Amino acid sequence: MPIQSPAFKLICRSCGWTKLFPPMGDVRFPCQVPQHCPTCGSENLKQVQPNFAEKMIANVLKKR
Ligand SMILES: [Zn+2]
Fold it and tell me: Of 31, 47, 52, 64, which is most buried with the most CB atoms under 10 A?
């Protein structure tokens, strides 16, 4: 049974780097979510709920 994970945003608390991740359902990329910040290498990452506009963007990303 596939697990639908909602869109989320990853924020680096160290340098302020952010990345938006589209909802992952039928096609999942396990290595898509980094454990370290690609900019500063910090593990101090936080997952947050995207706001409405960001959810729209995430849906566009999903369709691509
Ligand atoms: Zn960082």
Answer: 47
Q: How far is the CA of 51 from the centre of ligand 1 (A)?
A: 21
CA of 2 to the centre of ligand 1 (A): 31
The Cα–Cα gap between 33 and 39 comes to: 14
Q: Provide the domain count of the chain.
A: 1
- Distance from Cα 19 to the centre of ligand 1, integer Å: 11
Q: What is the pTM of this model?
A: 0.71
Residue 13 counted as domain residue: yes
